[in-house]
Amino acid sequence: MALKRTLGTTDLTLLVIGNVIGSGIFLVPSEVLRATGGSVTTASLVWLLGGVLSLLGALSYGELSAMDGGSGGLYGFIRDGFGRLPAFLYGWTLFFVIGSGTIATLAVAAANYLGQFTELSPTARKVVADLFLLGIMVMTVRGTRGSASVQNVATGVKVLAILLMSALLFALGDGGAATAGAAPAAGAPALTLSAAGLALIPVLWAYEGWQYVTFSDGDALDPQRSLPRAIALGTIALVAIYLIANFAYLAALGPARVMASDRVAGEAVAAVLGDRAAQLLALAIIVSMLSAALATVITAPRVFYNMANDGVFFRALGAVNPRFGTPALAIIACCLWAMLFPWVGTFSQLLNYVVFVGWIFYGLGAAAVIALRLKRPEARRPFRVPGYPVTPALFVLAASAIVVNTVVSQPRQAAIGIGMVLLGIPAYYAWRGRARA
Question: What is the DSSP string of 397-424?
Answer without folding.
Answer: HHHHHHHHHHHHH-HHHHHHHHHHHHTH
